[in-house]
Amino acid sequence: MADKLVIVESPAKANTIKKFLGGSTKVVASMGHIRDLPKSKLGVDVENDFEPEYINIRGKGDLIKSLKKDAKQAKKVYIATDPDREGEAIAWHLAKILENEKEKITRVTFNEITKNAVQKAIKEPRNIDINLVDAQQARRVLDRIVGYKMSPVLWKKVRRGLSAGRVQSVAVKLIVDREEEIEKFIPEEYWNIYANLQDKETKKKFEARFYGKEGKKLEIHSQEEVEQILKDIEKAKYIVNEVKKGEKKRTPAPPFTTSTMQQEASRKLGFTLKKTMSIAQGLYEGVKIPEKGTVGLITYMRTDSTRISEEARAAAKEHIVNTYGENYYENRYYRTKKDSQDAHEGIRPTYSDLEPDTIKDSLTKDQYKLYKLIYNRFMASQMSAAIYNTMAVTIKANKYDFKANGQSIKFKGFMTLYVEGTDSKQQEVEGMLPELKESQEVKLEKLNPKQSFTEPPPRYTEASLVKALEEKGIGRPSTYSPTITTILDRRYIEKIQKQLAPTELGKIVNKLLTENFSDVINVEFTAEIENEFDEIADGNEPWKQMIREFYGPFEKEIEKVEKELEHVELVDEVSDVPCDKCGRMMVYKYGKYGKFLACPGYPECKNAKPIVETIDVPCPKCGSTVQVRKTKRKRNYYICENNPSSCDYISWNKPKPGEVWNPEEANDVKKETKSKTTKKKTSTKAKKSTKTTSKSTTKSKKNKE
């Protein structure tokens, strides 16, 4: 019989903290949530003041019996689930399950799984924070109401199995809106003129860029303007008009929040949000290190705070001073955003002495990469600024101005260890100019006019979408990854070379929702709701009051939309492909596996076929048409339409005219694609989807009555 029972969410977390507690303590895992709303129905009693109808999660019966038995045998029960709203809710549900032992139950939290943090938490137990629980209940109930009330509209008008959601639908809207911006974008012409110059004394060459005329900035929009400027400075002398020297400081970025960690891991490591969070979870819960046992390597990874404890700050100082020197350390404090949940720290290593390279052999390749990113980012956040020597020069050519800038690092500071990534294509120019003096003449070697065109805004990547969601106040650290995963899984969006683009299905769903639920599917409303959850967590608003205020207008909107859409008929988009069984023109449908062709004569004619993408280069082996297909991992490959019947051409690389194919290329592709069955399987999937899908453009049918 154990004196103490500690309940956590996962076995990995349980294994890590076992060694910090005495032999009379038993540590068990709840395996995440133990109770939730039922999947088969709304699960919220709207007639009884929105009371949630929680049930035990299917398949957890034996686990619940075991937890009850362990709790009954223990003298004290500590619920040590994660230190956030979700963790608090899991603790509350566990307490409900263990109701008969409620006198023994108490709550403990720790931001890092270290011996000091765990033992301190056990000595300082508290009650379950019902305000945090209520904030989670408000989110769960509101999202369930929105999803279960709006999704049936999609089932009736698009196809079954689709889902709408308060946050996911706004994320799709952002991606669709960006795509529309790109499609509507009209490029504008502009020109730059670059002067290749040389300092006559040192013979050092440098480049200056056209700025303007008589001190005023001038934009160039046509070749005619360029030619006029070139004519005006054809025989001009290039005289240094102004030289400014100075110093510039660059300060380090703060420790990671969930959002910034996801963004940097995407930029620098190419990780998806889901992968980043999965690896971070493992680093937090514990990794086995020789001579140390299982160790939690980072603090809790779901946070929007950049606050750092004084103990961690002191440990960082000791490490930086010992490793780099006193002049590399600077005691830095970072301001946390006004609306952040500042319950715990930013993401940092738990042990400053566990440098990434010293434990590399104990980590997987991906764990090492992410741990190194987190470790270096944190250490750099406590280091001195980098210092640059800068030089800015203005050069006159008759009445026109050219400008040149240069810089060189005087002191690397934090950049010795870490430099924050950026989504911008522009790179910081490094390199000093010659030692130029005012009024001196420099030699012109060449003028280079360059035509350019303005570019549309880029598509979102996972990283830039997270940044946009955070800036607009949509969602919270725990929701970014599941939101993007959901809309990818639902095929509302797709990844094209790491960029997020809406699918046709995503556009249709977005159009239907934004046109009919504009009060719910908008950025301002979603951000406002997040603020209300924060108010509930702070104890400033009863959670059911928030649901009451939302539900009345929402229910009326649902009724109005259902009435308006009652006489709307969805017409399938017609293709130019005739059905090879009955001759009707086939239509586009959307199924679980994406877009496909189906006969409109269903159920009389059940013909369906996949949509085949082709290229305009013939098969290098037999001259037939080459098709583009995708592997399960969404990687393109190229295959002859006659494969495997009479031609075995298949390759990862797009064929080029006149190219001679090497048959050895096929082996690797065949392993991943199993090309002989691809076509047959795709067709079968398409047929299975025909019964439950319908597509595209909405067309209103006027009610003649």
What characteristics describe this protein?
about 700 residues, alpha+beta, six-stranded antiparallel β-barrel
Q: Can you walk through the features of this model?
A:
By secondary structure, this protein is α+β, with helices and mostly antiparallel strands. The protein has 18 helices and 29 strands. Strands 9-10-16-15-12-17 form a 6-stranded antiparallel beta barrel. A hairpin with a 2-residue loop joins strand 10 (205-213) and strand 11 (216-217). It is globular and about 95 Å long.
Q: How would you summarize the topology of this molecule?
A:
Layout: E1 4-8, H1 11-18, E2 25-29, E3 35-36, E4 44-45, E5 51-52, E6 55-56, H2 61-73, E7 76-79, H3 85-97, E8 105-107, H4 115-123, H5 130-157, H6 168-184, E9 189-198, E10 205-213, E11 216-217, H7 223-232, E12 238-250, H8 258-269, H9 273-285, E13 287-289, E14 293-295, H10 310-323, H11 365-381, E15 386-397, E16 400-411, E17 441-453, H12 462-471, H13 480-489, E18 493-496, E19 499-502, H14 504-516, H15 523-537, H16 543-565, E20 568-570, E21 574-578, E22 585-591, E23 594-598, E24 608-610, E25 613-614, E26 626-630, E27 636-640, E28 650-651, H17 666-673, H18 675-690, E29 698-700
Parallel strand pairs: 1-2, 1-7, 7-8
Antiparallel strand pairs: 3-6, 4-5, 9-10, 9-17, 10-11, 10-16, 12-15, 12-17, 13-14, 15-16, 18-19, 20-29, 21-22, 22-23, 23-24, 25-26, 26-27, 27-28
Helix pairs in contact: 3-5, 5-15, 5-16, 6-13, 6-14, 8-11, 8-12, 9-11
